[in-house]
Specification:
By secondary structure, the chain is α+β, with helices and mostly antiparallel strands. It contains 8 helices and 9 strands. It has 2 domains: 70 residues, Arc Repressor Mutant, subunit A (Orthogonal Bundle); 131 residues, 2-Layer Sandwich (Endonuclease, Chain A), CATH 3.30.870.10. Strands 3-9-8-7-4-5-6 form a 7-stranded mixed β-sheet, with helices on both faces. The chain has a two-stranded antiparallel ribbon with strand order 1-2. Strand 7 and strand 8 form a beta hairpin.
Amino acid sequence: MNLSALTHLGLTEREIAIYQSLLELGPSSIRDLADKSSVNRGSTYETLKVLASKGIVNYLPKGKRRVFQAESPDKLLDLAEEKRQHLEQTLLELKTEIIPGLNQLKPEFSSGNVRFYEGDDGVETVLRDILQSVGKQEDKIYCVISTSAIRDHLYRPFPNFTKLRVQKGIAVKVLAIGEGGEDAQLAERKWMKGQGDASYIAIYSSKVAMISLAKNNYPVVVVIDSKAISGTQQMMFDTLWGAL
């Protein structure tokens, strides 16, 4: 029987081996248990103390010695429930206290707010970040300004992006410069006359992602994480959108 999943409850492989051996043997001395589990007596005793502190082993006196016995395996459910409660509490503290507190330690804007990517991998990174970031918003929508020259290259590394976007219920407004661009679900599109160099600007969450093509259609990506910048870009987008 493979009990390695018990490591997720905070049990070491040695603790699992000794607990399993104790279940098979029944009430046992340290010597018998050490022989059964192939662990030396000193380590067996220390491990039993740890298991006792976790509530899955107990002992009773037998003459001048102690005899150890395993608690019911149902006790493992108690361990799992305790772990779950601690994890939920930790998640709550991370969301409400720890992460906001750590974010306050950061300067309002630094080089860490700007990220550079290259190639198709960089484009895919940004597209996945859009799905992840916007998917967490209450209003699941983002805005894009895109030229016709980049459309054939944008989803090359992530061809099922639109399908995943729709599955997540994420809407998009697109200002398309130049003719073309396919209709899609949860997508609203307006066109502007012109051609323009290959470029794609996405305004989402607190970020602005800018994608352009260098020599040989090699993608270059810049992402700025700034509420001030994204807010200004959003205001400009909304003004232009309303005028068309």
